[in-house]
């Protein structure tokens, strides 16, 4: 891939901090890919943020006995702090900002003015006692597609959209004992079926860029008529909809992703020194941006299906994103991470105990790329000690023996070996074969090989050279070790050319944070 790379991890809802389940999936992967892209000379932007408009903010605040505004402010601080603690270097971090609201409303107003929305009567669960329509996080029930229990809006199990009125046995999440009835309301919708053919063709052309589970889900979704997608909701929490025919309604949070992505991209570019003519400049047709999403499987519909339809509805104004790297759920002791049940390990708390390089390595090795994987503290200690800390410290000690004896000669054989190391590791960083699992596995294998090497005067330069190249390949994951050990983190993907090396004293890895 050449040109500008715009990397995006969808913003988590501002109703809590980030646990390892969040970090092991999209956030670490996006950070590693961004660091790798820069190491091989690409312009790369990384953006995320928090989303305060979902109803889950209201339901969580109610459960915790606080106000939504206080919860959003605390969650925003916590998420930013956790990302920093884990070394996930965000360029543009979006939050509760007037500029974001302006971007969302402008995006929707262009579609509304072009006649792309329709006024439609839809059925919603309704609470007679509170006088409130129940959508998304306000209501739970069975998914009409896969039957799994969950909230309306999106199904975490099958990733299909769930119209609130289609839930099986709906019940209020905040007041589960209250009776619920179905009531009609007029909302604005995007007629998704008009775009199904183009969505199907777009993803058919790029199916090789999707992991199998996403490819299967997308194929299933576009194999049948797509339901109309509600753009507005008859509730009060969210961005007010600027349309007179639905006065008092708000914009559906699941209709925000493309406008948010544009704003997130612009913010990221500006933080890295760019001057843009408009918030959507990087997305315009022919702008030369390659947009890459790292997201959980359950976020497929709003970003890949409904989001693509909204871009298509702008009649050629925007290029369509085609690169979506999904992940499955990361579990804790073989059960899904759950904030509400207190079944979680918080990233910032763990980083206060364990060096973040060890956490990043272990999360990479166990990232839930194709199926659910499991975290345990015992495995973190055992795996990082045996596969990373102990072998690295022995290798580092051998390099130190040759400090101040150089420069040492590097043979053609060593340059060829180093080229193979680079090829194997970077193959796992490229999008076509991106895999944190394989990257961590290859790094551990190569470290083990170096650990078995007892260099003498004749091959000391080769040994130090290959350690240097392995560190460069490990730098997107082992960020602190690489920062301490290397003058830069560039990866010579065209092949190493050094004929000699002056060894540098190597830092050691610790098992406990200082």
Structure description:
This protein is an alpha/beta fold. It is 40% helix and 16% strand. Strands 3-2-1-15-16 form a five-stranded parallel sheet, sandwiched between helices. A four-stranded antiparallel sheet has the order 5-4-11-12. The radius of gyration is 25 Å and the shape is elongated. The two termini are 39 Å apart. The mean pLDDT is 95.
Examine the coordinates and then state which fold CATH places here, giving the name of the CATH topology of the largest domain.
Answer: Rossmann fold
Mean pLDDT: 95
What's the alpha carbon Rg, rounded to whole Å?
Answer: 25 Å
Query: Biggest sheet, strands in spatial order?
Result: 3-2-1-15-16
Shape type: elongated
What is the CATH top level name of the largest domain?
Answer: Alpha Beta
Largest sheet: 5 strands, parallel
Regions with little confidence, pLDDT below 50 for 5+ residues: none
Q: Helix content range of the residues, please?
A: 25-40%
Instruction: Label the CATH architecture of the largest domain.
Output: 3-Layer(aba) Sandwich
Strand content: 15-25%
**CATH-defined superfamily of the largest domain:** HUPs
Domain count: 2
Number of helices: 15
Distance between the termini: 39 Å
Structural class call reads alpha/beta
- Give the number of DSSP strands: 21
């Amino acid at each position: 891939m050449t040109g500008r790379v715009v990397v995006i991890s969808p913003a988590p809802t501002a109703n809590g901090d980030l646990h390892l389940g969040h970090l092991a999936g999209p956030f670490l992967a996006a950070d590693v890919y961004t660091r790798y892209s820069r190491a091989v000379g690409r312009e790369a932007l990384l953006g995320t943020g928090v989303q305060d408009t979902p109803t889950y903010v209201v339901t969580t605040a109610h459960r915790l006995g606080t106000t939504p505004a206080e919860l959003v402010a605390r969650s925003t601080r916590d998420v930013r702090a956790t990302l920093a603690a884990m070394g996930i270097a965000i360029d543009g971090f979006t939050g509760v900002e007037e500029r974001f609201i302006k971007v969302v409303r402008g995006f929707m107003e262009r579609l509304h003015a072009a006649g792309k929305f329709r006024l439609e009567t839809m059925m919603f669960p309704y609470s007679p006692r509170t006088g409130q329509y129940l959508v998304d996080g306000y209501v739970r029930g069975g998914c009409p597609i896969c039957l799994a229990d969950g909230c309306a809006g999106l199904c975490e199990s099958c990733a299909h959209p769930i119209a609130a009125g289609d839930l099986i046995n709906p019940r209020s999440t905040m007041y589960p004992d209250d009776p619920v009835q179905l009531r009609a309301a007029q909302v604005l919708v995007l007629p998704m079926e008009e775009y199904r053919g183009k969505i199907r063709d777009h993803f058919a052309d790029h199916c090789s860029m999707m992991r199998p589970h996403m490819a299967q889900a997308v194929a299933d979704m576009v194999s049948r008529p797509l339901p109309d997608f509600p753009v507005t909701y008859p509730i009060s929490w969210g961005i007010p909809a600027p349309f007179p025919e639905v006065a008092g309604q708000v914009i559906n949070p699941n209709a925000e992703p493309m406008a948010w992505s544009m704003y997130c991209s612009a913010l990221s570019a500006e933080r890295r020194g760019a001057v843009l003519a408009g918030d959507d400049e990087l997305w315009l047709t022919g702008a030369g941006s390659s947009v890459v999403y790292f997201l959980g499987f359950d976020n497929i519909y709003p970003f890949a299906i409904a989001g693509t339809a909204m871009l298509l509805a702008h009649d050629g104004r925007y290029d369509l994103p085609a690169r979506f790297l999904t992940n499955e759920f990361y579990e804790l002791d073989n059960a899904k991470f759950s904030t509400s049940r207190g079944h979680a390990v918080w990233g910032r708390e763990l980083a206060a105990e364990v060096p973040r390089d060890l956490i990043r390595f272990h999360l990479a090795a166990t990232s839930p790329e194709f199926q659910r994987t499991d975290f345990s503290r015992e495995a973190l200690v055992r795996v990082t000690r045996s596969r990373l800390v102990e072998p690295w410290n022995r290798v580092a000690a051998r390099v130190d023996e040759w400090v101040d004896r150089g420069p040492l000669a590097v043979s053609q054989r060593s340059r060829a070996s180093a080229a193979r190391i680079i090829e194997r590791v970077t193959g796992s960083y490229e999008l076509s074969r991106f895999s944190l699992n394989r990257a961590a596995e290859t790094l551990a294998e190569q470290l083990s090989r170096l650990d078995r090497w007892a260099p003498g005067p004749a091959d000391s330069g080769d040994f130090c050279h290959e350690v240097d190249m392995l560190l460069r390949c490990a730098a997107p994951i082992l960020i602190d070790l690489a920062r301490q050990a290397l003058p830069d983190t560039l990866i010579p993907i065209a092949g190493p050319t050094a004929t000699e090396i002056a060894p540098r004293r190597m830092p050691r890895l610790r098992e406990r944070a200082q």
